[in-house]
Amino acid sequence: MAYNSRTTQYRGGQQQHRQQKKESETDAFLRLPDKVIAGCINDIGIPFTMADLLKPNPQQVQMVFEWFAELFMNTTQETVEPAMLAAAEDIAGDQADIFPPDTRNLMGFLVSLRKLMLQCGVHDFTFTDITRPTYDRIAKIFSYLINFVRFRESQTSAIDAHFNKSEDTKMRIETLYAENQELEQRLEEMKRQQKEMDGVVREKTSRNDELKTRLLELRRDQERVAETFERVKGEKARKQTLLEEKTEKLLKSRQECEKLRPYVSQSPESLQSALTELSDNLAHDKSQVDGMERRMRALQTSMNTFTVVNNEVQSSIKLLEDILVELQKEDDQESKGIKNREALAERGNTVREVAHTEKLLQTQLARWQERIEALRKSSREKAEQAQARMEELHSVQKQLREERAEKQREMERRRIRIEQTEKKMADLKETIEDEIHRAHDEYLKMESHIKLYTTEIEKCL
């Protein structure tokens, strides 16, 4: 068991060593020179020197971090202040002042900044990196941030394209939402108008029913009055004919009396009796005439009454015509109400279509978001692959550098050997040339001696 534990510790140590070695190689690959880091920070408008990098100032480092956070996430200590104040009030209530505003805002800013650091590849970012920064940590973090900015600038076209698509989709959603709200308001207004129209229609319908009932009663009264009028009119004609007959008979009787008057006896008794009879007849005729006159006056009164009733009937007919016009208007209003209901139904269908379109657009937005996430994932995978490829290339480059250094050393040795050989050859050439010159001089001397010897021999011979 002790052996197994030691083996496990050894393997864990090896894995940790390999991981640290890999991280150190990645840091060495991504880490930028101090001069480049200081120049990039100066380019963004914050005064920064290599001395500031060697001895970092917390306030200056916070300014740099805040600039990067505002660039990538649109977040500063001022933007997180309302949320942190609300959180402090939720936690401490009325005693929210126990949390200093600067510390509170800095902690909220740290949360947002840590998300940015995770995206940049810095997984061990802590609060100490802001409050007590060191050279190694700040150089590493700034190098990762600058590399992330460069990578983002290299992918600006793709980012802008997806951002523009998302903005267009967002604007389309906002437009459709505004149209939906407007249509809902119009729908509510039309429903309210429909309710008002329903109340008016019910009122008009009840009034129409009452007017129909009243019209039927007036029609029955008109029929009764017309029947009475016709009956009275016939009675009047009959009575008038009877009066004319009685008048004609009276005139004939008077004419006959005038004709018979000369032939009547002049005895007082007979005259008295005739006078009495005539008085009775006259009284009877007078009573009949008075009765006929009263009847005529009654008939005249009935005629006047019938005229008034006829006028009332005419006014009733006119009222009925007005009622018919009102009924026609009510029918028109009802047809308009039906049309409004149909229009409301069409608007409802339009609203449903808009809602369906909104759902489709939301689905498309979700798809685009999924595609964006997939693209981000693929870009991260490609970045990881590129990073792995860069690591491989870095290792290959390191190997090539070692091979190049070895070859340069070998070439240097060969160059030294060649120079030494050339120097030896030059020395040997000089030596040979000196020997040739000496041999030539010896040859000339020998030739002169031979010539002299030959001359002396010839002289001797």
UniProtKB/TrEMBL annotation:
Example of a GO MF term: protein-containing complex binding
Region spans: Disordered: 1-25, 379-413
Keywords: Cell cycle, Cell division, Centromere, Chromosome, Coiled coil, Kinetochore, Mitosis, Nucleus
Keyword GTP-binding: no
Coiled coil location: 166-228, 275-330
Kinetochore protein Nuf2 N-terminal domain residues: 27-167
Membrane-spanning residues: none
GO cellular component: Ndc80 complex; nucleus
GO biological process, any: kinetochore organization
Main location: nucleus
Matches recorded under InterPro entries: Kinetochore_Nuf2_N, Nuf2_DHR10-like, Nuf2_N_sf
Bias (Low complexity): 1-17
Domain Nuf2 DHR10-like, residue spans: 279-394
Pfam family, one: Nuf2_DHR10-like
Subcellular location: Chromosome, Centromere, Kinetochore; Nucleus
Family listed: Belongs to the NUF2 family.
PANTHER family, per the entry: KINETOCHORE PROTEIN NUF2, MEMBRALIN/KINETOCHORE PROTEIN NUF2
Function: Acts as a component of the essential kinetochore-associated NDC80 complex, which is required for chromosome segregation and spindle checkpoint activity.
Protein name: Probable kinetochore protein NUF2
